[in-house]
Amino acid sequence: MDDLDNLLYPEITLETDDIVMTISVKKDYSQIEDLDERKEEFINDLNDFIKEFSETPESQEFMEYFD
After folding, report:
1. What DSSP state is assigned to residue 14?
2. Number of neighbouring beta carbons within 10 Å of residue 46
3. pTM to 2 decimal places
């Protein structure tokens, strides 16, 4: 059932010259009626996600790949 749930999450692919990242969004932003507020909430959550990842052992391990 978890596999089915994962298929229902909206996804977005973000790309720069250096990084391509596909994100599945689990949070329901539809409760925020104002589009600008919804966007701000998503960006804040994305920034929090990146900050949280940067503090994990996995981020260190990932950077060690380039050694």
Report:
1. E
2. 15
3. 0.77
14 - beta bridge partners?
A: 21
User: What does the buried/exposed string (b/e) look like for 9-23 if buried means 16 or more CB atoms within 10 Å of the residue's CB?
Assistant: eeeeeeeeeeeeeee
Amino acid, res. 32? I
3-state helix vs strand vs coil in the chain, percent to 5:
55, 15, 30
Q: Residue 53 corresponds to which amino acid?
A: F
pLDDT at site 58:
95
18-51 pLDDT tens trace: 999 999 999 999 999 999 999 999 999 999 999 9
